[in-house]
What does this fold into?
Amino acid sequence: MTQRLVVSGATIIDGTGKAPITDGILVAEGERITRVGAARDFGSANLNGSSTRVIDATGKWVIPGLTNLHEHLDNHRGTNTFQARAAQPPLWLIQRSARNALISLIMGVTTVRDMGSKGATNIVVRDAINAGQILGPRVYACGSPISMTGGHASEICIEADGVDAVRLAAREMLKKGADVIKVMASGGFVTQGRDQPWSPQLTFEEMQAAIDEAHKAGKPTGAHCHPTEAIKTVIEAGVDTIEHGMLMDREAAEAMEKRDVYLIPTMDEAFMLAEFGEQLGRPQWLIDACREKSKHIPEVIAYAVQGGVKLGVGTDVAGEMGREMSHLMAAGLNAMEAIIAGTRHGAEVLRLQDELGTLEAGKLADLVVLPDNPLEDILACDRATLVVKGGVVHDPVQLRAALGPVAS
It folds into this structure.
């Protein structure tokens, strides 16, 4: 018998941008939502029964399940340098991925786009979650990113040089089961002196080859990219999302808006390392760089906000979702727009807008119960009191008790 779930009494923010529903009721049958509305609209409808679970969320707030569009499950919340973390063996990385998947679910993330793991371990973790072997968000995995030899984060990438080699790398990831293909269009912030964030890396022709292979297979694409010229190049090559964009300007924003390319800024990475870098064991040069760039990040991302670029929410390896949404607000979004970025836009990027992203009849029952009003305190999005994924209810307190005491 299909179980019915009824969440009642809460103020519901459905992710569509409509005004919140006060004293709302959400009903799900099995894994899908069947009805959402104000209690007064349900009249005398019988919402009880032997197969019904009623959750009284009076005084609380309900939003759609969050989508983290830029995650690295095998690297997130880790300590030490990137190189030290990447050097750990695959089984260790899978274990850390499983831990981070559980933490993400605890924090209200019901869907993850994992944008790069060493040895494509994110595909293994995705399949383990889908098979019910471990608990976590549903995962859409890129496998390993594609970089030039010695390029950004090459320690976890497929290194490829030339059009044919990059095309082969993309085909190899698609053969492994990648849901998205990621290319490294510029340098970044993980290797001092060699990996310069303002430096273009893969060429237009190389990136176009990888992107074409993904699109032929019906898969979306993303590009790690910081400077404007590299952003314009990879957009011309046909990419679907720009990851980071910390050195962009108005010209880059115009190019994204014109081609309907989404930006996933991952700003909280810099803020977290600026504040907690020493505790996380990051090298001093990286902490200093993050302290400097965090002073300017909101005004950089404001180019995208002012230019009408659609934004998504991603954490990279040190951020958290609510905090990232607060930085989007500092760049010019209001709270409702920030919530939409973390829910509906995530579904759109994954091409799952008919399944996820909003609380509407027919969609998967992914929702988060929050203790406080996120329209007044967006950081409430990091304080889930109940998480529902596909109609299955998870208690964050119980899940947290299953975690080991130390992240590594």
Observations:
- The longest strand covers residues 4-12.
- The chain has a mean pLDDT of 96.
- Residues 90-106 form the longest helix (17 residues).
